[in-house]
Amino acid sequence: MAFETVKVRKPLLLRLLPFLSVATFFLVWEFAVSPPGVSDWRIPSTLLTRPSDTLLLAIDKLTNVNPDGATLGTHAWVSMQEAFTGYILALLVGIPLGLLMGWFSAVRGLARPIFELVRPIPPIAWIPLTIFWFGIGLGGKVFIIWISGIVPCVINAYIGVGMTNPVHIQMARTFGASDWKIFTSICIPSALPMVFGALQIALAYCWVTLVGAELLASDQGLGFLITMGRNLGRTDIVILGMVSVGLAGAVIGCIIDRIESKLLAGIRR
Amino acid sequence: MNTPTHAANVKIACDAVSMTFIQKGVQRVPVLRDVSMEVFDQEFLVILGPGQCGKTTLLRIIAGLETPSSGEIRLDGAPIDGPGTDRGLVFQSYMLFPWKTVLGNVTVGLDMNPALTPEERRVEAKRCIDLVGLSGFEKYYPHQLSGGMKQRVGLARAFSMQPKVMLMDEPFGQLDAQTRFFMEQETERIWLSQKRTTLFVTNNIDEALLLGDRIVTMEGKLPGQVKASYRVDLPRPRDPMDIRFLQLRQEITDAQELTL
């Protein structure tokens, strides 16, 4: 006996819808700024630029360091480095901490009060201190990103462990499992869907905080590109920065989605 | 009461077990009162009672998942103190790990035993999977299985620990009538092949009569108390249309205030 695996494809229209919606969005934007057939009027470029101009600028900025001091690739690379260093450090500390807090009441008792005190402070509020401590280089931003990313990691891992089915734990006890064994073989897998949720949420937090941090204290990065655009009165640079931040965030989100669905094959049904 | 009395054959002895749950810190809910009964070696004992009569609580106390307020339960003469591998538990709600395959679920208990090599674990798990008729499904995940198949996995997992007794808590309560009947026949087949002492809790009188060597009925209201014990001296496999089957069914039904 065995079951067959059948792949069901969605109808063509449904598969095209996402592309249609994006294309429509940019077309409407393009024609709203400079309506076709109207040659003597357009929204001034100091207010809003056309997507096509932004695209041209993006291509130009791939090699041109002017007027903001670095190519688009460098900006993106610097931002990625900062975001991912902070993000990965947040995962490495936050998820184990949350998991342990969920299962061991001693860890919970020790870590919870401090966590609850630090949590309500907006990550951006750390910027002045981090400038004193780390200057405007990589370290300070990594620290702020770490602070913002660790919160959802701890909370989700903690709640995830709490959602472990108590009967699963009882059953493991009837098999003579130790506390640690129950933690590793039952609580952690049970918490995984929540932990993967945390990967997404933390990334969003990190990415948002990154741009915030770069707006205030940096000399490179996509957030810095936006600031420079503002200082120079160039909406196209501002929008290029914004779109780059959005695109990069979406791509990373997609990648994490893929990994998640692979790893959770047995849990999601 | 018609029970064998030689104490040497007693496998599980419940001695004046009472249980009171405290709800919200104040309200006391008596669930079991002075329950005394025995399960004999190699016996298939069915505890029959309607919902909310404390039968599941009794099973959970025997499993070691609850501590009785008073009284004692002994397995092979030794008082029960917490859960242990000598009692195999089958839950009504299957309780499989959704992230593990059939093989992984059956191996869960064996994995807790450091004395076994991975190969021994695999062989033993395979033996239990064969026993419950799930060969070929080792690599499937629970969500790919039907209710009956899930409960087979639950059975195999309980068997894998080679428990002294099997404790089954309305294991087929979630199955449709046809699958349920089929699983009852399977349970009988497996029990006949192993003669492992089994304590089976159900609210279904036909299930009780099909499977039990003996049926202990419980009062239909809290606190749960043992009402009567019936010996089912019918040849296996039993025929639900057999006149003695129906007579005994009538006798038990008449004695219960709630229709079973």
Summarize the structure.
Chain A has 269 residues and is mostly helical. Chain A has helices spanning 12-33, 51-61, 72-103, 105-118, 127-134, 138-162, 166-174, 179-216, 222-232, 235-263.
Task: Report what the structure shows.
- The complex is a heterodimer of chains A (269) and B (260).
- Chain A is mainly alpha-helical.
- Chain A is flat.
- Chain A has one domain (50-263): MetI-like (MetI-like fold, Orthogonal Bundle).
- Chain A has 10 helices and no strands.
- By secondary structure, chain B is of the alpha/beta class.
- The radius of gyration of chain B is 18 Å and the shape is globular.
- Chain B has a 6-stranded mixed beta sheet, with helices on both faces. Chain B has a 4-stranded antiparallel beta sheet with strand order 2-1-4-5, covered by helices on one side.
- Chain B is 33% helix and 26% strand.
- Chain B contains 7 helices and 10 strands.
- Chain B has a domain at 99-157.
- Chain A binds chain B through residues 1-3, 165, 167-168, 170-177, 181, 185-186, 189, 192, 264-267, 269, and chain B through 63-65, 82-85, 87-89, 91, 93, 95, 97-101, 108-109, 111-113, 136-137, 140-141, 143-144, 161.
